[in-house]
Design goal:
The protein has 339 residues and is an all-alpha fold. 57% of the residues lie in helices and 2% in strands. The longest helix is centred in the first third of the chain and has 35 residues.
C-alpha cells in the first residue's frame, strides 16, 4: 500500500547465531506498531482508515445496543416468569430490572467512552452540543446510531423472549401494550396526569446529566480510568429506584423510541404511538431533552469552570486584557520589534 514504509525485521538464523536484516522476507514479518514510527502511515490497511471515520457512531450504536438488550431483557425476566404458564427458575423483580438497566448503561458507556465520548443518549448529545461545545455536525449521526442501536438491542431481547411473550399473551399473533408492550417502551401509570408524567422524566433526566457532569468534573478529583462507568451505574440505579415508578424512567429518547418502533413492527401496532395523545413524543423524548438542557446550564453556570462551557466564554474586555498582558510579558521593555 502506498504511503506505508516497511520496517526492517530481524530474525535469528540457525547457521551463525547472528541477526540478519531481511526487510522483504514475508515469512518472518512480525506485528508492527505503526504508531511508533513517524514515517509510517497512520493507517496500516484500507479498513483501518474506514474504521477511523465510523468508530464514533459505531461505538454509540454498540453502547445503545447493550443498554436496551440488557435493560429490556431484565424487564422481560422480571415480569414474564411471574406467569405460572411460563416455567422457569426464580423470576426477577423490580430490583433486578433496575440493576439490568444500570449495568446496561454502565457497559454501554464503557465500550463507547474512548471512541465517541460515551453519550449513548440523544439528550446527552444535545446537552453537550449546546453547553459544552460538542460539534453540532456530529449530532445527527450520533442520534441515528443511538436510535438504531436501541432498536436492534430491543429486537434481540424480543427474539430471546418471543415464546415466553406468546405464552403470556395467549398466542403468537396477540400483542398488547398492557400485558407485554410495557416491557420495551415506557408508559405512564394510569393515575398520572400528563404534567406529572413530563415532570417525572424532566427531573430524572436532570439528575442524570448532573451526575454525569459531577463524575467528569476535574474539580471533584480526576477520575481514574474506568471509574466513570461505575459512577454511571450508581447514578442510574439510584434514579430508577427512586423515580422510576411513575413513567418507567426512560431518561433517554433512544431507549424509548427504539424499542417502541420495534413493538410497532412486531405486532403491537400503532397503539404504541397513539397512547395518551402521542405520549411517546412529549414525555420520553422532550422531557429528557429539556431536563438535561436546563440542568446542564445550571451546573455550568453555578459550578463548572472549564473553558469548553459556553458559560465560561471570555468577554471582549477579558480578551483585550489578555492580549495586552501577553504583549507586555513578551516585550517587557516596550521595544518595538521589526520584521
Amino acid at each position: 500500500m502506498t504511503g506505508i514504509v516497511e520496517k526492517p525485521h530481524y530474525s535469528e538464523t540457525s547457521s551463525n547465531n547472528s541477526y540478519a536484516t531481511r526487510p522483504n522476507d514475508i515469512s518472518v514479518l512480525s506485528v508492527v506498531d505503526f504508531a511508533d514510527c513517524d514515517q509510517c502511515s497512520r493507517y496500516p490497511n484500507r479498513w483501518s482508515k474506514i474504521r477511523k471515520h465510523i468508530s464514533a457512531p459505531a461505538a454509540e450504536f454498540m453502547g445503545a445496543f447493550i443498554l436496551c438488550l440488557l435493560g429490556c431483557g431484565g424487564n422481560c425476566q422480571a415480569n414474564l416468569f411471574v406467569n405460572r404458564n411460563v416455567p422457569a427458575s426464580p423470576a426477577g423483580n423490580f430490583v433486578t430490572s433496575n440493576l439490568s438497566w444500570a449495568v446496561g448503561l454502565s457497559l454501554g458507556v464503557w465500550i463507547s467512552a474512548n471512541y465517541s465520548g460515551g453519550h449513548v443518549n440523544p439528550a446527552v448529545t444535545i446537552a453537550f452540543a449546546t453547553v459544552r461545545g460538542f460539534p453540532w455536525k456530529k449530532v445527527p449521526i450520533y442520534l441515528l446510531a443511538q436510535l438504531l442501536g436501541a432498536l436492534c438491542g430491543a429486537g434481540v431481547a424480543y427474539a430471546t423472549y418471543f415464546h415466553a411473550i406468546s405464552i403470556v399473551e395467549g398466542g403468537s399473533d396477540i400483542r398488547t401494550i398492557a400485558v407485554t408492550g410495557r416491557l420495551f417502551g415506557t408508559y405512564a401509570a394510569d393515575y398520572l396526569p400528563p404534567v406529572s408524567a413530563f415532570f417525572a422524566e424532566f427531573i430524572g433526566s436532570a439528575m442524570l446529566i448532573t451526575g454525569i457532569f459531577m463524575a467528569t468534573d476535574k474539580k471533584n478529583g480526576p477520575a481514574p480510568p474506568g471509574v466513570v462507568p461505575v459512577a454511571i451505574f450508581f447514578i442510574i440505579l439510584g434514579i430508577s429506584s427512586a423515580l422510576g415508578m411513575d413513567t418507567g424512567a426512560a431518561l433517554n429518547p433512544a431507549r424509548d423510541l427504539g424499542p417502541r418502533i420495534l413493538t410497532a413492527m412486531v405486532g403491537y401496532g400503532s397503539a404504541v404511538f397513539n397512547f395518551r395523545n402521542q405520549y411517546w413524543l412529549w414525555c420520553p423524548i422532550l422531557g429528557p431533552i429539556f431536563g438535561m438542557l436546563i440542568a446542564a446550564f445550571f451546573y455550568d453556570a453555578m459550578l463548572y469552570e472549564g473553558s469548553e462551557s459556553i458559560t465560561n466564554e471570555p468577554s471582549e474586555e477579558a480578551e483585550r486584557h489578555h492580549l495586552h498582558s501577553c504583549t507586555r510579558c513578551n516585550n517587557p521593555r516596550g521595544v518595538l520589534e521589526t520584521v
